[in-house]
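Hi team, as promised in this morning's meeting, here are the two structures we talked about. I've kept the exact order from the run log so nobody has to guess. The first one is mostly here for context; it's the second one we should focus on when we meet again. Sequence first, then the predicted structure tokens.
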Amino acid sequence: MTDDGRGPVEAATADLAAWLATAAGEVVPVGPPADGGPADGLTVWPLELRPGRQTRGTGNREPYRFTVRYLLSAAGPAALPRLDRVLAAAVVDGEPEVLLEAGDPELWRAFGVPPRPALLIDVPVQVARPLPAAPPVLRPLRLRQLPMRTLDGRVVGPQEQPLAAMRVELVGTAQATHTDPAGRFRLTGVPDDPEQTGPVRLRLVGRGHTLTADVDPADTDLVIVCEPPAR
């Protein structure tokens, strides 16, 4: 539940409706495409829930992630310019993720309406897990100062194209940065603990996806390839 008592799907729907109102230039009602609805206008409807890629953190329990897929349909010729504005805004903003896959005749037969121009919109959602109670401290605390290191790397897509404005987070810490136009990033203040060996886990957020990568902190030519999750 959110702080205002709404569930995750309800909150995601309200947020998407607010974004659509700005992009389309008018309020977009939430409802299925049906005869007898708006004669000329857009409607948005949560079509299905799709599983998301789950991650595991080194500290607190990671949220449960999934995707809500919405159907944005246009009724009447006057709705087409509004649909165009929504599509252009999504492309320019880089989110939400829009798919041109709403032409399945079975889908429209299920709604009982003729096929009409429409988009599928995927909105990532997460549900926070409750934190377990911390166990009592039974031994004196031992403090030691860890040296820090800097982690440099690049984030690219499947075709080696650099991905700019991707948020790169060091899982389990507050350390985070963003990639530059060349896809490069630099994380400072990465703990360099000689008593612990193994990879460092990074979380990458952007373009409608959240991915994780385990990397070698000693790698001087670190390249992370982001591939979108299979649908």
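And here is the second protein, the one for discussion:
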Amino acid sequence: MTDDFSVLVVDDNEINLMLMEDILDVMEIKKVKTIDSGIQAVQEIEENPNYDVVVMDICMPGMDGYEASKKLRHLGYRGRIVALTANLLSKEDPKFQEAMMDDILLKPIDLNTIKKVLCYS
């Protein structure tokens, strides 16, 4: 992974955001931004479309992760979007495919799983 690898983490739960920051820090990913809503995710990508990966919580108030991901793709975002969820989710799920997401991280997240999803997919 390069030094300029960047990750945007979107989750409405502050504890989940802190956990992701800690895990990404252990992975020595230094360019990490955390935000707490799908609306903010869309605004952030409009302003800075250069994130390598967006880790997107699915269940958020206002704009959920599916809707936010669709909007990111319509804005032209070409990086990876990884769904973050505590619920069972399959890549075959129509909502997942319609949102044009690339992979899935199931909560609770562990270091080995996130390494596989961010680095090797």
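Starting points for discussion:
The longest helix spans residues 14-26.
The chain has a mean pLDDT of 91.
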